[in-house]
Structure formats: structure tokens, C-alpha cells
Design goal:
about 200 residues, alpha+beta, 9-stranded antiparallel sheet, DUF6928 family protein, DUF6928
Length: about 200
């Protein structure tokens, strides 16, 4: 499956324990986060949806899921990998006190993965790889889920073309560090990350 994803996901606690059946969204908190991200814009709330629909928003849309111990934010501006994208990522990472936050951007045409990892709002890992250009950014200590992917490069292999699939790399990070399970995997408890509820906003 080819994924396009522009997602920030924070949790206060182990993701496998935080993300579980029965999570109740807080629409007022979601609206406050959305408007805090874009204070100069007019944002119109246009209803509710689920993460499966929200992963790759239209350019004039923003999706936010706010919960007691978790935050999800989907914004295609993350794909730009510019100062504004870093601002959005930093803001999401700091919105939930004491949380750990992963920011994942995948694109099915460019075949690249941008991933940032924060703990208590501090950026600890920033990595950007593409199938054609190899390793573009590799800053901070590698996370456990990354290590198998780097074995060939660490052993002396060239990084162009990249010796691993960027999508598999990103999804492995999401499973281990963001959700505690595969983003498209329904657990024995019945919980499926793609069914998480989010609030939908439109820039007008």
C-alpha cells in the first residue's frame, strides 16, 4: 500500500496503553489547538471524521484530535519541510505537557519519509530520507525501531539509492513509537488507529 501522511501524534504515557478503545475526543480543546496554530486565519469547523480520512488533508484543511492523554494533528503543510512545517511540528509537540510526540510525513510519489521525535517538547530526533536522494537529514540519536534499517549504511553501503524503503521505515517508527501498534492494525482489544476521531477545520 502506498501512503501519503502528514501527521503529528503525541501521547502522555506508553502509546499502547494510551491508544485504546473508548477514547473520548474533546472538540473544544481541538478547536483551541487549531486556532492557536493559525491565529491570523479564519478557521471554520466542518464536522468530525476519522484518522483514515484525515491523514493527507487538502491544502485548505486541518484535522485535530484532542484527548485527555493524546493529541493528533493532520496538516499537509508539514509536507513542505520548511520553517512553517517545523513550527507546526514544534507546536504539536509542546501542546500536551509531558508527552512524547512523533511527526511523520510520507509521500507516495516522492517516496520519502520525514520523521521528528520529541520528548516533553524537546526535539531529540530529526531524519529525512528519500529513495532517490538517500539520507538528507540524520540528526539526534536513532530510535530503537530505526536501527535495523541503518545496518547496510552503517556497514559501508552507499545511501544513494537508499537501501531501504522509506515508507516501511516511517510505518515502523509509527508502530513502535507513535501508536504502539501498526497504524492499520486492529488489536485484539478491537482498537484500530485509523478509526480515531478527529475534528475537521477549513481555512476560509
Amino acid at each position: 500500500m502506498a501512503w501519503s501522511v502528514a501527521l503529528a501524534c503525541a501521547s502522555a504515557g506508553e502509546p499502547a496503553e494510551v491508544f485504546r478503545p473508548g477514547l473520548a475526543p474533546d472538540p473544544d480543546a481541538a478547536a483551541a489547538i487549531a486556532r492557536g496554530l493559525y491565529p491570523a486565519d479564519t478557521l471554520t469547523e466542518t464536522g468530525d471524521t476519522v484518522l483514515d480520512f484525515a491523514l493527507w488533508p487538502y491544502e485548505d484543511e486541518l484535522f485535530v484530535g484532542a484527548f485527555e492523554r493524546a493529541l493528533l494533528l493532520c496538516d499537509r503543510r508539514l509536507f513542505c519541510l520548511d520553517d512553517d512545517a517545523r513550527r507546526i511540528a514544534d507546536t504539536a509537540a509542546a501542546a500536551l505537557p509531558g508527552s512524547r510526540c512523533g511527526v511523520l510525513v510520507l509521500h507516495n510519489v516522492i517516496r520519502g519519509c520525514w520523521f521528528r521525535w520529541y520528548e516533553s517538547g524537546a526535539l531529540l530526533r530529526d531524519v529525512f530520507v528519500t529513495a532517490e536522494d538517500g539520507v538528507v537529514v540524520d540528526q539526534g540519536g536513532r530510535l530503537p525501531a530505526e536501527r535495523p534499517f541503518w545496518e547496510a549504511i552503517d556497514g559501508g553501503a552507499a545511501d544513494v539509492p537508499l537501501p531501504f524503503d522509506p515508507e516501511e521505515f516511517g510505518l515502523a517508527l509509527a508502530e513502535a513509537h507513535m501508536f504502539g501498534r501498526g497504524i492499520a492494525d486492529r488489536g485484539e482489544d478491537g482498537f484500530l488507529p485509523l478509526e480515531l476521531p478527529l475534528r475537521r477545520f477549513k481555512h476560509t
